[in-house]
Design brief:
The protein is α+β, with helices and mostly antiparallel strands and 180 residues long. 28% of the residues lie in helices and 27% in strands.
């Protein structure tokens, strides 16, 4: 079981430093397939840190990694992986989820077997998506999403740890990582 919500305080600071980002996780999926779904060129892979990948905001870049049996992608300034159709393609016969943070929305989405199963607006959790919108109600409550006051971005990292056993840290998000 993951630690307390406060263990992820760094995540709120990290998200606040980004203009817009999407963290997509999927299994099973190959690196080339994930890059293709996200619109990145799998023939142009270089190792970059998040800061280096952000050197030209006109170029769509995706950082990739592998953690706890999941392949993940980090998009900065784009949120292709948070599009329901893209997430469904990432899930394929397996499963995928995404955390999306922009200046106007913060969303969690989960797909399994090519279908959008569940999702919600992390700032207004009563706004739900998918065929089973209440699937993660218990975990949402434990992460603080159903409290009267918004829990902050750290709750997204906490939810990921609770649901999927993935303990995110800054190194896995900032790199250096393969980038296309």
């Amino acid at each position: 079981m993951a630690g307390s919500l406060t263990d992820f305080g760094w995540f709120t600071t990290w998200v606040d430093e980004q203009l817009a980002l999407c963290l997509s996780f999927a299994r099973p999926i190959g690196a080339a397939d994930m890059l293709r779904v996200l619109g990145a060129d799998s023939d142009a892979i270089e190792t970059r840190t998040l800061r280096e990948a952000d050197d030209d905001p006109t170029v769509h870049r995706v950082l990739m990694g592998h953690r706890d049996g999941w392949r993940y992608a980090l998009e900065h300034l784009t949120v292709v992986g948070c599009d329901p159709e893209s997430l469904q393609r990432l899930a394929g016969p397996g499963e995928a989820f995404a955390l999306c943070y922009t200046q106007t929305i913060s969303t969690f989405l989960y797909a399994r077997g090519g279908e959008l199963v569940s999702g919600f607006d992390m700032d207004a959790p009563r706004i739900r998506y998918g065929s089973e919108p209440g699937k993660f109600d218990a975990e949402m409550a434990a992460a603080g999403f159903l409290d009267p006051e918004p829990p902050g971005d750290a709750a997204g990292a906490r939810l990921v740890a609770m649901l999927f056993g993935i303990e995110m840290d800054q190194q896995m998000l900032e790199g250096p990582l393969p980038s296309a």
